[in-house]
Design a protein that fits this description.
Blueprint (H helix, E strand, L loop, with lengths): L1 H10 L16 H8 L2 H7 L5 E6 L5 H14 L7 E5 L2 H15 L7 E4 H11 L1 H4 L5 E2 L2 H13 L8 H14 L3 H9 L3 H22 L1 E2 L1 H14 L1 H10 L2 E4 L7 H7 L7 E6 L14 H4 L1 H4 L4 E5 L1 E2 L4 H12 L10 E2 L15 H17 L7 E5 L6 H9 L4 E4 L8 H14 L4 H8 L7 H18 L9 H12 L4 H19 L5 H4 L1 H9 L6 H10 L16 E5 L10 E4 L4 H6 L5 H12 L2
Parallel strand pairs: 1-7, 1-8, 2-3, 2-6, 4-5, 6-7, 9-10, 11-13, 11-14, 12-13
Catalytic activity: ATP + H2O = ADP + phosphate + H(+); Couples ATP hydrolysis with the unwinding of duplex DNA by translocating in the 3'-5' direction
GO molecular function, one term: ATP binding
Enzyme class: isomerase
C-alpha cells in the first residue's frame, strides 16, 4: 500500500493545455487577403469548384490555405462543412489554429486532420454502416509481430518479415498487384511468391480478422473500397462536407485517390501541392496526379505560386537547375523576393567526424556573430547520419533538438501501460493480452498463452472477461481501468498507479526515472477523450514524437532533423549532410528524379 500511495501522488499531476485566441475581429480576413500577393489572392478567392494550386517551396502555401478557409467562412460556408486534410498532425493543428486566431469564434467547428485520422473519424461516426464496430487499430510493431509469426510457419530462407510487410503495404497504397510488386522488390520468382509469400499474407489477414484488428493501410482501404461500392456513403460524406482542402497534394497515393474520386461530384476539392516536393514515394505517393490533374478532374482550374519569400535567388537558381535535369517538365521556376545574395557552398570530407566538426564550427561562427543556435538547421537523409553531429554537440556542450526520433507510443513502457487499456477496449486483442500478462512476476510465455487462451474462449462464450480466472493484481488493474474507460485521462492514471511497482521493477536498470514522466504526457494527450479505443487509435494513426513532448524548447538549441521530418521548417543556415547521389539512393529504391527532388527539397528549407 505504501508504494501505491507514492504512485498515486505522482500520477495525479495534470499538464496544462493551451487554446486559440478567439477574441480577434472578423475584419482581419479582409486585411489578410489584402496582404497576399496577386498569385496568392487569386488562388485563395477562386470560384472554381475543383482547384489545384501548384505552390513552390517558400511561396506561402500554408498562408494561402488559411486564407482560403477564411474566405470560405466569410462567404457564408459553415466551418463544420470545411475539412482540411494534411499529412502530419502538426500541419493540421497549424492550419486550424491560424484560422481560429484570425476569425475567432466564427471559425468554431472547422475541421483539420490527417487523411488517416479523417477516415477513422468517418468509420467511427457510422460504425454500423462501415462494419468495424469494436475493432482495434494496431501499430507497425504489432503488424510486424503478426508477420513474424506468419513467416515463421514457412520455409527458411525467405525475406525478412519486415520486407514482406513493407512490400505488402506499398502494393496496397500504390494499388498495384502484390505478386508483381513482390517479384520486383523481394528478389523471388513468381512461383516462389505464390508458394511461400502469399500464404504469409493470407495468415496475416486471418489473424487480423479473428482479433478484430485494423492496420494503418486498412484505415484508408476500408473507406476507399466502400466508397467505390456505395453511392449512399459518398452522399453521406457529401452532406457533411461541402469543401475538402488538401495540403501536400503531391504526396497523395492511388489509395487516397480511391477515396477522393467518388467525392468529386459531391463537394468542392481545393488541392495545394508542389510536384517538386514529392518525398513520400516509399508510401506509394504518385506526384503524376498533379501533372494529370485536369485529366483526372475535367473542368478543374490550376493556379501557380512562384514568388519565393524564404530563399535567395542563388539558392533558387541551383534548385531550379536541379529540377530541370529531370525528364519531367516542372514549368515553374521559383523567383526570390529577397534582395540579399547568397549561394550554397559544397564541401567534401573523408570522414563523418570531420564533417560533423566542420558543421558545428560553422554553427558556432553564426552564434559568435550574434545569431541564435536555433537559426541553424542540420538535415540528414536518415537518423543514423546525425550521430556524429550529436556526439560533437555533446562534447562541446551545445544544446540540440532532434526531429525524427522515436514515437511516444512506440516506447516499451508506454506500450506496456497501453496493453491494459487495449484489453479493456477490445478483450479479443491477443497481442495486448500477451504483453500485459507477461509484465507480472512469475507469468512467462507459456502461462501467459494459457491464460490468454482461457480468456478468449470465455469471451467468445460469454462476451466478458473472466476476472476470477486471473491473478489478483492482473484482474484488479483491468477492473479498475474498465470503471474509468469513458474518462481516458483517469483510466491512464489508474493504470499507471496499478502498474507503477511492476514497471519500476521491470525497468530498474533502464532509466525508470526518465520513463515514468511519459505517463503524465500521455495523460495530457488524453484530455477530452471519452473512449480508450479512440484515444489509442488516434495516436497510432497520428503519432507523437519524443521531441513534441515538451513543446518548443525553452532553451536555444541547434535543430537537427531528418529530411522527411522537416516539412514546414526553415532557418537562416541549413546544412545538408551526405549530400551525394549515392547517399540519397542508398536508403530506399529511388529513381534519379526522386533523389534530385529530395535534394532540392532540402536546399529550400
Amino acid at each position: 500500500m505504501q508504494e501505491r500511495s507514492k504512485a498515486t501522488d505522482k500520477y495525479r499531476t495534470t499538464a496544462s493545455l493551451g487554446g486559440a485566441d478567439k477574441s480577434k475581429p472578423v475584419s482581419a480576413t479582409v486585411s489578410l487577403l489584402n496582404s497576399l500577393n496577386e498569385q496568392q489572392r487569386v488562388a485563395a478567392t477562386t470560384e472554381s469548384r475543383q482547384t489545384l494550386v501548384r505552390a513552390g517551396a517558400g511561396t506561402g502555401k500554408t498562408l494561402t490555405i488559411v486564407a482560403r478557409c477564411a474566405h470560405l467562412i466569410e462567404s457564408g460556408v459553415q466551418p463544420q462543412q470545411i475539412q482540411a486534410l494534411t499529412f502530419t498532425r502538426k500541419s493540421a493543428a497549424e492550419i486550424k489554429s491560424r484560422v481560429e486566431n484570425l476569425l475567432g469564434v466564427q471559425a468554431a467547428g472547422l475541421n483539420a486532420s490527417t487523411f488517416h485520422s479523417w477516415c477513422m473519424t468517418l468509420i467511427r461516426g457510422n460504425e454500423d454502416t462501415w462494419g468495424y464496430k469494436g475493432w482495434t487499430v494496431i501499430d507497425p510493431e504489432d503488424q510486424l509481430t503478426i508477420f513474424k509469426i506468419a513467416r515463421g510457419r514457412c520455409e527458411p530462407g525467405l525475406p525478412p518479415a519486415a520486407s514482406i510487410m513493407n512490400c505488402y503495404s506499398f502494393a496496397r497504397n500504390a494499388q498495384q498487384r502484390f505478386i508483381q510488386v513482390a517479384v520486383d522488390r523481394l528478389g523471388l520468382t513468381r512461383d516462389q511468391i505464390e508458394e511461400f509469400i502469399v500464404p504469409v499474407i493470407r495468415d496475416y489477414e486471418e489473424v487480423k480478422r479473428l482479433n478484430r484488428y485494423i492496420d494503418y493501410d486498412d484505415v484508408l482501404a476500408i473507406v476507399g473500397m466502400q466508397l467505390q461500392a456505395s453511392d449512399k456513403l459518398a452522399e453521406w460524406i457529401g452532406k457533411m462536407y461541402s469543401h475538402l482542402l488538401i495540403d501536400e497534394m503531391q504526396d497523395t497515393n492511388p489509395l487516397q485517390w480511391q477515396i477522393l474520386r467518388p467525392l468529386v461530384s459531391r463537394l468542392s476539392l481545393y488541392c495545394v501541392g508542389d510536384d517538386a516536393q514529392s518525398i513520400y514515394g516509399f508510401r506509394g505517393a504518385d506526384f503524376a496526379s498533379i501533372y494529370n490533374f485536369q485529366d483526372i478532374i475535367p473542368g478543374s482550374k490550376i493556379y501557380k505560386l512562384t514568388d519565393n519569400y524564404r530563399s535567395t535567388q542563388g539558392i533558387l537558381d541551383i534548385s531550379n537547375w536541379l529540377l530541370r535535369q529531370s525528364p519531367l517538365s516542372y514549368d515553374k521556376d521559383l523567383v526570390a523576393q529577397r534582395s540579399e545574395e547568397s549561394t550554397p557552398a559544397l564541401e567534401t570530407f573523408g570522414a563523418e567526424q570531420t564533417a560533423a566538426n566542420r558543421v558545428i564550427d560553422l554553427v558556432e561562427e553564426t552564434v559568435n556573430e550574434g545569431e541564435k543556435l536555433k537559426d541553424n538547421l542540420i538535415l540528414v537523409r536518415a537518423s543514423y547520419i546525425a550521430r556524429a553531429v550529436e556526439q560533437v554537440c555533446l562534447q562541446r556542450e551545445i544544446p540540440y533538438r532532434f526531429y525524427g526520433g522515436y514515437k511516444l507510443l512506440e516506447s516499451a513502457h508506454i506500450r506496456d501501460l497501453l496493453s491494459a487499456l487495449r484489453i479493456v477496449a477490445n478483450p479479443l486483442d491477443q497481442l495486448a493480452w500477451l504483453r500485459y500478462l507477461m509484465l507480472f512476476p512469475k507469468i512467462g510465455e507459456v502461462s501467459a498463452k494459457r491464460l490468454m487462451d482461457e480468456q478468449i474462449a470465455h469471451l467468445r462464450a460469454h462476451s466478458d472477461i473472466d476476472y476470477s480466472a486471473l491473478p489478483s493484481p492482473v484482474a484488479d488493474t483491468l477492473s479498475d481501468i474498465r470503471q474509468h474507460q469513458n474518462v481516458v485521462p483517469e483510466a491512464i492514471t489508474v493504470a499507471a498507479e496499478h502498474l507503477d511497482p511492476v514497471l519500476e521493477k521491470n525497468y530498474r536498470n533502464q532509466n525508470w526515472d526518465r520513463r515514468w514522466p511519459d505517463f503524465l504526457h500521455l495523460k495530457s494527450l488524453a484530455h477530452g477523450h471519452t473512449s480508450v479505443a479512440g484515444f489509442v487509435e488516434q495516436y497510432i494513426i497520428d503519432p507523437v514524437f519524443s521531441t513534441e513532448l515538451t513543446g518548443e524548447p525553452s532553451e536555444d538549441a541547434v535543430i537537427i532533423s531528418t529530411i522527411h521530418s522537416s516539412k514546414g521548417m526553415e532557418a537562416n543556415h541549413v546544412y545538408l549532410l551526405h549530400a551525394s547521389p549515392a547517399s540519397f539512393q542508398r536508403h530506399e529504391p529511388l529513381t534519379a528524379t526522386r533523389s534530385k527532388k529530395i535534394a532540392g527539397y532540402s536546399m529550400l528549407r
